[in-house]
Write a structure and sequence with these properties.
single chain, 193 residues, mainly alpha, 7 helices, 2 strands
Length: 193
């Protein structure tokens, strides 16, 4: 009787592992699709993109570890030359030397940070919004730091990498927090029924 139970447990773990891998791969592809929704802004080399929204949503949805892995996979896909980055900018690994490199390199850490904060307490809209805001601060600190390295001017780095984006980022934060809370409510109700 213990042999069939062991086999079922192994199959259950294998299925769970396969679902976890599929979720991570799907999340990296979601970020890639979101990157295609990009708008170049005159006066700055950094485009307005839906990538940040996707990164926040992945981190809040998958948690710190899987969120980090999904975004590390996304960067590996881009470095390998797959067309996963926003269409504005250098292709492949050259993107990591361009003006958006600071943001890109921060993505795994941003997703992990959002997931870490959100999974460490009651999963409310407020907690999701706080996690997303804190993660956005990390993202923009990294992005602006890299722009400072390129421009040697803090004022230009802020002009290129922050001012144009504040309003859109507030919307992305609220949208990501609202969506993740809606998903949780939906899945919680369906599990109980």
């Amino acid at each position: 009787m213990s042999a069939p139970m062991t086999g079922a447990a192994v199959r259950g773990r294998s299925l769970d592992s396969a679902l976890q891998i599929a979720a991570v791969v799907a999340a990296s592809l979601f970020v890639a699709v979101s990157a295609r929704f990009s708008l170049p802004i005159p006066g700055t080399p950094v485009p307005l993109s839906m990538q940040n929204f996707a990164v926040l949503l992945v981190g809040l949805s998958l948690g710190s570890r899987r969120g980090f892995i999904a975004l590390a996979l996304y960067l590996a896909e881009g470095a390998a030359g797959l067309p996963v980055f926003a269409p504005v900018g250098a292709p492949g690994i050259l993107r990591f030397a361009g003006p958006t490199a600071g943001y890109l390199i921060a993505y795994p850490f941003v997703a992990a940070f959002a997931g870490y904060i959100f999974e460490r307490g009651k999963r409310t809209f407020t907690r999701a919004a706080m996690a997303a805001i804190a993660s956005e601060l990390l993202l923009f600190a990294c992005g602006i730091s890299w722009l400072y390295v390129l421009t040697h001017s803090f004022a230009r780095a802020l002009s290129f990498g922050l001012y144009w984006f504040i309003f859109a980022e507030v919307i992305k934060v609220m949208l990501a927090a609202g969506i993740v809370r809606s998903w949780q409510g939906f899945f919680h109700r369906n599990i109980q029924n």
